[in-house]
Write a structure and sequence with these properties.
two-stranded antiparallel ribbon, 14 helices, 2 strands, globular, about 325 residues, mainly alpha
Length: about 325
Amino acid sequence: MSHSNRAPPMLDYMRSNRREVIAGVVLIVLLAAYIGTHPRGASTYVMTIWVNQCLILGLAACAQFFAVVVRGIDLSVGAVMALTNCLASYLLDGSVLGIAAGMVAVVAAGALCGLLNGVIIVYGRIQPIVVTLATASIFVGVALLLRPTPGGAINYDLADALTLDVLGIPTSLIITGVAILGFWLPFRRTGLGLGLYAVGSSEQAAFQSGINTKLIRLAAFTLAGTFGGLAGLYYSFVTTTGDAGIAPGFTLNSIAAVVLGGVLLRGGVGSLIGALAGAFILKTIASLMFFSGIPSLAQPLFEGLILAAAIAIGGAEVLRARNKLEAFS
């Protein structure tokens, strides 16, 4: 009898992950509209270009997710991308062994940037928004020293392998699938994955239950830097050049993407899948505007309004949570 009242597994999943499900539905509708307005329809070329652009922002949104889920924010995401992109423009050409070592060095540089943020935030007891605003300036400064003007070279064969398609399936879509199935789904069930949500929900309660909250926050910002490095690396493959000027747009868009993907800025709620979906939504809106006849000069205005609305929604959630907490107190 008890089994008859039980919801079907799919319905149960949709209820418990409704934010990601809503983001997914919105993405499907927007993608259908984009394909419908594009002159070449759903060709492999069109889909590959679309997913490539989405994945760059998607990796930046993943970086932002790890900071936000522990009640932080990372204003250095774009700066880490710029630094690692410029570093990649020096290291990703030459022998196969040299390129492999270069890729590891680029991602490691991103992780070190995140670790630096985490150490200052955790042990300096300074607000993440202040720390990452300061370190962002440092990272961009280093990027400008490496590449005062855009340039450098990325191995074209490797870039093609990671930005074109495999049997008609965009390689970037495969990479997205690997990030979800190979990393996120197993990771969220680990002690670290569960710890991120515990600290984000209530750091005091997490501490009282025996969780090393300092280590968790340190790991969160290191992961943010790692994904920022991956975003900079993939940007290098797509553009095959280094550019220190890419930081501002990606930082703001990464924040908007996580909000659109159902990640709450007050921490403890959301997932990497939602962050990716939010990034894909943002990029699809931009692509849709390009092919829908909106004048090019008006497009930044619409993009700015979408960004402002997304961040305002996230800010309203934080204020609502604080007001509830104050009323309860």
